[in-house]
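just leaving the lab so this will be short. what follows is a protein written twice so to speak, once as letters and once as structure tokens for the fold. can you read through it and tell me how you think this chain folds. thanks a lot i owe you, the record is right below.

___
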Amino acid sequence: MVASHVHNDHVTGDLELARITGAAYLVPADANVPSARVPVSDGDTVTVEEGPQLRAVATPGHIPHHTTSVLAEQGDPVAAFTGASLLIGTVDRPDLVDPA
């Protein structure tokens, strides 16, 4: 389970799905997540079982800790999971962001 970013305009079942399936929950290291997770930072690589790798690439914009995950097979990039990286600034639900 991979989260590109975490903030109040998203309601997901990521943590619960990871718990039920036994999957790791990869979350950007700078995200404020109080639950169990595997923190990932720019450049970190995680191998999925004995196969493909996921490389974390910092892509701040929509939120400072936003991270893209690049999927590689045998070292060659084949896909990128960008999440909400094309949204600039707080454009979704600014009323949910803590003003402090």
The first helix runs from residue 14 to 21. The beta strands are 26-28, 38-40, 45-47, 53-58, 67-73, 76-81. The CA atoms of residues 61 and 88 lie 5 Å apart. The longest strand covers residues 67-73.
